[in-house]
Design a protein that fits this description.
about 270 residues; alpha/beta; 5-stranded parallel β-sheet; about 10% strand
């Protein structure tokens, strides 16, 4: 990630693409924590919070959402040109999000089912991460992102240092808390071994398997976990559905898509 000398007041912009706004709401939830540093950070563009907009360039841009239209492609390039540092926040921006489930099918097959007048809908054949179109300096994973990790990201970038965000798996969090493994003890399908930490192992804490909300951990051994799930009786379709949620389009999870079903990597984009 490039370094820059923070100005007297760091100029931050927040941008929305195809998303549910959940990650931007996580930022709004940080209002009390951000008050003490209000003198050093200026939110120059943040339409979720205010219509007041200051022109770029910007020291830091936080980008939520995936690329789903030709206009999105043009706009993210403009954002990149105006930003010294660009960080993506959330599953949509880092892998395509839940809407990337359309990558496993043909858009034309369901447009007429969802929309009364599909001829007016302009969309790409796939939902793509920001990094598919511009250089990204830092990715903050999660659906939605964790408030504590977001604060660390903002404070780190405001002070010109690399953010310190956990890159270990959810299993490490369970071990630290002394929780019994739901997969070993109960046979519950769980993506914890291949999912990045950030949620505090919320689902396993309630005796449920991890759904992979924070995406694949670096070096995720998804194939090995898939084999273990199969050995415990999960059929190919059930395993595919487990990996096909918030980070379905992330390479480590996308490769576990059930054989015989469309591979998003093989679908031709209509950009």
């Amino acid at each position: 990630m490039p370094e820059f000398e923070p100005a007297a007041k760091v100029k931050v912009a927040v941008w929305k693409f195809a998303s549910c706004d959940g990650c931007q709401l996580s930022l709004l939830d940080c209002e009390d924590e951000l008050l003490p540093i209000a003198e050093t950070i200026e939110f120059a563009h943040f339409l979720e919070a205010t219509r007041a907009v200051a022109p770029g360039p910007y020291d830091v841009s936080l980008v939520e959402g995936s690329i789903t239209t030709a206009h999105d492609v043009e706009r993210i390039r403009e954002v990149r040109e105006q930003s010294k540092i660009l960080a993506t926040i959330g599953a949509c921006a880092s892998s395509g999000g839940i809407q990337a489930l359309k990558n496993f099918a043909r858009v034309e097959d369901f447009l007429s089912i969802v929309y009364a007048t599909p001829e007016y809908v302009e969309t790409l054949a796939t939902s793509e991460p920001i990094s598919a179109h511009v250089h990204v300096d830092f990715e903050l994973q999660g659906c939605p992102i964790d408030k504590g990790q977001l604060l660390e990201l903002i404070l780190a970038l405001a002070n010109g240092r690399t953010p310190r965000v956990a890159r270990h798996s959810v299993c490490v969090e369970c071990k630290r808390e002394g929780r019994v493994c739901v997969m070993v003890a109960n046979g519950t399908p769980c993506l914890g071994p291949v999912t990045q930490a950030g949620c505090g192992a919320l689902c396993p804490a309630w005796n449920r398997g991890c759904f992979g909300c924070f995406g694949p951990v670096d070096g995720a051994a998804a194939a090995t976990l898939d084999d273990q799930l199969a050995a415990r009786g999960a059929d190919a379709r059930a395993r595919s559905r487990l990996f096909s949620t918030f980070y379905a389009n992330a390479p480590a999870f996308r490769e576990r898509h059930a054989p015989g079903e469309p591979d998003p990597a093989a679908e031709e984009s209509n950009r």
